[in-house]
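Example with several molecule types.
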Amino acid sequence: MAYKKMLVAYDFSDSGEKALQKANELAGHDKAKLHILHVVEYLPPVDTSFGAVSPFEVDLTDQLVESAKSRLASVAEKLGIPKEQRWVELGSPKLEIVRVAEEVGVDLIVVGTHGRHGFGLLLGSTASSVVNHALCDVLSVRGKDE
Amino acid sequence: MAYKKMLVAYDFSDSGEKALQKANELAGHDKAKLHILHVVEYLPPVDTSFGAVSPFEVDLTDQLVESAKSRLASVAEKLGIPKEQRWVELGSPKLEIVRVAEEVGVDLIVVGTHGRHGFGLLLGSTASSVVNHALCDVLSVRGKDE
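Resulting structure tokens for the full complex:
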């Protein structure tokens, strides 16, 4: 395959775990640089003209990002992924995966996919959107069917 | 990676060619069985209550399938893919790729993707539909952007 730079999208789920393992094997085999990305999908409460939507004036974004960073760090540490190859971004996974892949200039994205039932399929999965928009190859790793 | 049985969807296009090369390398490396599939996307002229839509009462389906079989055979021959691992099916690529993958019981589908512009993106690509519906991993190999 001879991929040189890979990005694995990791969402702390079971199917993310499978994708991470595959990406790690593949990177080890191809002697490729493996970047790891977690996207925090969180919309902070927005002030409206009627006041804050949230009952408390608290924005959890920073805490969520910090907590994701430390979870990702412990996973990355085990796999020997150095700090400069770890990414935590805030926003839409579909968009952030493609954006970071382009920024880093990877030639393979590895992403987990969930089962083919339910709303996920109806709305279109993150993986299929990444396939449609990425400029590089994409390996979609199938998780367990729910 | 250690995939044991792979299916590559080959549409005789440039991006199909890239997918075929990747699949062949990967199969050689993993010592996996590589199946190759071409889907003939052809709707034969249908008789309506006003008579045949086609000016000639000719059904080209058989010729198209035969021609695809011989083109596929010459490609498969070069790669050493034996006859029982060659598939030519008539219908929708999205559906046939997933169906044949399940019938053969492959653990990886390799499929080419075209550029991210134009109608293809609007309608959703074959690759992204395969990602949504396949029961196994899918490697989408990016072709040149048109």
